[in-house]
Predict the structure.
Amino acid sequence: MRYLLVEDNQELAEAVVNRIELDGHAVDHAGSLAEASDCLAAADYDLILLDVMLPDGDGRDFLAARRDVSETPVIVLTARSQISDRVGALDQGADDYITKPFDFSELEARCRAVLRRRGGAARNDVAVGRATFDMTNGTLAIGDEIIDLRNRELRLLEVFVRSKGGILSKAALMDRMFSYDAEITENAIEVYVGRLRKKLGHAGARIETVRGVGYRLHMS
Amino acid sequence: MKTSGSISRRLTVLLACVAALLSVLSWSMVTSFARQAAERTQDNILEASASIIAEALRSEDGEVRLELPYSAFSMLGAISEDRVFYHVTQGGATLTGTPAISADFVSPAPGQTRLNTTTYQDEPLRVAAITRVILAGANRVAVTVYVGQTRYGVSLIANDLSRTAALLSIAFFTVAVALSAVVARTSLHQINVIAEAVARRGPTDLRPLRQTPPQELAPLLQSLNRLIDRLSRSLRQSEDFIAEAAHRIRTPLATVRAQAEVALHSVDDVTEKKRMRQIIRAVDESSRSAGQLLDHATVAYRSENIPDTAIDLAQIASTATAALQPTADMKDIDIHLDANTAMVRGDDVLLESALRNVLDNAVKYSPPETSVTVRVRTAGASGEITVSDSGPGLGDEPFEKYTERFQRGKNAEGTVGSGLGLTIARDVVLAHQGRIELTNNEGNGTCVSFILPRA
């Protein structure tokens, strides 16, 4: 996936870029609408994250103008009042919006939801045992049979797949699963790992418990 | 509204007074003209009659002789059935007729006529006199002929004409009053046109009025437009202020939160991780409060002008559910939407915001891997949205407490929240003439219902 982040606040942009890259996506950052136009002219993006208040104009005007030429999904980042901005952003053709400050997990969940809804994004398949895991759409399937994964199990699987066989401590897993108001305990991690292990068992992949350290996914 | 009387009525009364004055004036003029005309006619006939009699005088053997011509009296009869008298004198001595009718009369000079009104037998009598000089032998004698007639006929004709004039005047007055009412109403119609144009407007329509007013109403229209302009400017300012305040508060919070989250991933120490989480929670707490405070302000000023648009609650529920879905997914909470069409009237943005606040609460307080149900249905004269969750429920505190500002339930400890969510929802529902009901589900969880009047 290739994202374009249009955000004038340098510190915030850095943190967002950092986090999206951690999830395995490429991100370009534009600090103004002019820079964003340059980026869009130079490359194709799967998703645009667009701030509303930018130094050289209103993100929503940019959005409205852009809607005439491109279908690239857009998520608006807004720091304004929810009610009044909701009207503006969605009317101008944004696919979704998120209010600042936002939870990275929520941002990620919304990006995924928009990409899935648009259905246009290319698959990003990874083999997990005999199964195929599509990282874009978050589906795990053996042949035509889809293995039903709950969202948290899916997140866990993603983290394991990205670690490429490395050992992940419970604390590291908790960090990645942490979200805005749902504290995840070490106990819960054990429960989710247990369930994922069972579901992956059908696919011939194995989550190994490394005693005293953490877990490791063997993909074949 | 208290008013200082009706311009239309005042105008009508004024015009009617003018019409009444004109009617009376025209009646009295017609009456007096009619009387004069009748009298003039009588006078002319009396003169003619007198002169015919005078023509009939002749002298015979030095004596004045008169044979009364019948035509002289028959022409008098043409006017009316009044009584007729005559008197012929020669140098003051009566030749023939009734002397009384010329009692207070100075005989006219020869060849002259004279008219006078006298009283005879207690009746007014109009008398014409003519003097003629006749040669009686060698003498020239002046003979005066008096012809008199009572005035019944003249009065009769005059009264008749006067009555007709009175009837015409009354008719004129009636028509004039009706016309003044119409005129008053038509001239005031323009005011109504402007009033209607203002009344027809939606609450958010603050464009200036475009009517072309009559000259007299132009100042009114101008001040109205100036007021509208000031109003829209002040509304825009408060909207801009809310947006700007939100931006100023949330942008730095977003930076702090993002950096803290990045730091959370880069530190290994358990205590530091805990500290980072605490920072993030604190940021979430304050940003939610700020957001809801601003939403609360937005709701407060939008509630002043609830539009009369038809809205399907099912549509509201579906939009709000879709918006919350990604957040619910993160906790593996299923949102079941069971929505039948229920039309209400109001502001869709506000209703959706109210529902989002309640749904947000439901998702927030429910444990992971449970479900939240959103139901929309009609019941009698109301449309209802019900959100039930599997959270900890409300406890045993009175339900009113939850819709008070900044009040959070005992069971809410450990979850981020400002306690404004239900207040916003309640304010929105109240502004739509509805009510909000909170109940504990059987088993566990909370059930929040918006009950709104159906469209």
Observations:
- Chain B has three domains: 7-158, 206-305, 307-455.
- The longest strand of chain B covers residues 123-136.
- Chain B touches chain A through 52 residues (CB under 8 Å).
- Residues 41 and 411 of chain B are 115 Å apart (CA to CA).
